[in-house]
Amino acid sequence: MRPSDDRPYKNTVAVLATMHGKERVIAPVLKDGLGLVVGLAMGLDTDTFGTFSRDVERTGSQLDAARAKVAAAFAFAPCARVGIASEGSFGPHPNIPFLALGRELVLLIDRERGLELTGHFASPETNYGHAVVSDIEAAIAFAERSKFPEHGVIVMGCVDDKPAPGLALFKDVVDHAALAKAVGEIVARCGAAFVEADMRAHRNPTRMRAVERAARDLVRRFHSRCPVCAHPGFDITERVAGLPCEWCGEPTHVIRAEVLTCQACDYRLARPATSATTADPGRCERCNP
Description:
Layout: E1 13-17, H1 23-34, E2 37-40, H2 62-76, E3 82-92, E4 100-110, E5 115-123, E6 130-133, H3 136-145, E7 153-159, E8 162-173, H4 176-190, E9 193-197, H5 205-222, E10 235-241, E11 255-261, E12 268-272
Parallel strand pairs: 1-2, 1-3
Antiparallel strand pairs: 3-4, 4-5, 6-9, 7-8, 7-9, 10-11, 11-12
């Protein structure tokens, strides 16, 4: 049995903004970790806040989009105390060339307490990618590299090797017949088709698992309480480099400390990031230029 105070929202109803099945992974995690009973904002079209297929551009940041979704969910469920939303972002890895990176964010807003808390998960384990093709064979080759048909693909118009969803757009391509039809029609119209992995969670099991990881991080952060005021979300906000080199003693880029901050009372705590007192000389710009 878990302690009675370990689930602070026991039997509290939360409204989730999704139309892509994310409740399948978010609801059990938040029920088990926080006691929330998650329901859907039925009828809410979350595509109005941006789509991966580019037919609706997202405005603002990943967090901005999640906040807008929660606000819309509260409009659908005006009596709900807690709102939940998720937002993903995909693109090139900032440090590793030719590698993609997926970032997931799950947001909780408790409007009674004035609490806003996010969980995060980032990983290169994503099938995010695209190909410009002129025949079905090339489309199938790309799709199967993207784990098709377990994972869906989106096919759209193409101009100068760039996506042109305004010319043609096929979503929910989940079998070879639908892929052949979409590619054939678009190649006949545009000369080439832009095929990309469908990053919507209900068409992408890899992404769905990442959303679950972000929800688990949200629960972890909620239970990380400030040692001064006990506010949830006491977590790392800064990593400080400068662990000294083992040979020359000069600061390196290796992280030496982590700073945890409370968003309520601004209490800050610095703690060592590693048990090591020096860095490998191979990480030193002076000893290994």
